[in-house]
Design goal:
Elements: E1 3-5, E2 11-18, E3 22-26, E4 48-52, H1 75-85, E5 90-95, H2 98-108, E6 113-119, H3 132-140, H4 148-157, H5 165-173, H6 178-186, H7 196-199, H8 207-213, E7 221-226, H9 234-241, E8 247-252, H10 259-262, H11 264-275
Parallel strand pairs: 3-4, 3-5, 5-6, 6-7, 7-8
Antiparallel strand pairs: 1-2, 2-4
Helix pairs in contact: 1-2, 2-8, 4-5, 5-6
Length: 277
Amino acid sequence: MPTLSAPDGTSLAYHPSGSGAPLVCLPGGPMRASAYFGDLGGLDAHRTLVRLDLRGTGSSGVPSDRSSYRCDRQVEDVEALRAHLGMETFDLLAHSAAADLAVLYAARYPDRVARLVLVTPAAGSLGLAEGPADRAGAAALTAGQPWHPAALAALEATRQGVFDFEAFAPLIYGRWGAAERQHVADRATQAHPELLAPYYADGAFDPAATRAALAALTAPVLVLAGEYDGSPNPALAARIAEAFPKGGAAVLPAIGHFPWVGEPAAFVAAVREFLDR
């Protein structure tokens, strides 16, 4: 397992796999170990995936300064990986909460990004966020599934502070088969909920400044949404895409927040079509 040193000396691990041109992959969670990407539905047959374990997760080291977990401060970790790999420009994929990190990187280093794929992205860095109506609308799309009543009740319980991810996970995935069950089971050794607050600490985002800086980004950007996802739903994904000079959105039908798990072929086809365009 290769490592590099972040600017502050923290050891960062990354995991290359597959063949083809490199695709740097930033994991969401926030701050979930990159192992949950797996082979991204078989995308590694077409690209060399370079999965970065963000500081304090997976095989990366724990920083001495806890404030360095803040999203904007991890931008330099991504830049350190690019320099370590010796790439002048590179293709970048980010999922969910890591989309904010990728957006901040693109705003700070617009000339380094060749193409950017944002998979079911968060967009606090752009001043955009889903609301309760978005999540409720997405949940309604799978009504009639046998798991739906219990999952919906578990989701509603989060409003009273009862958080049981496994119970409402079918709504997040948009389905509940063997692949989804295993993906959720693996989460127990990958998640770092204690790092959520430091990642989103005050000062992480300045949406107006970020949007202004993105005017210099010439790279094409794909915002990939799932039809059954409420975070973001397809409408919000389209608004996220509008923040980029060359942004576009695509929707994968009948799938939720982790599209490579339930619809690997469709996911790989959408990402390949964009990257190879």
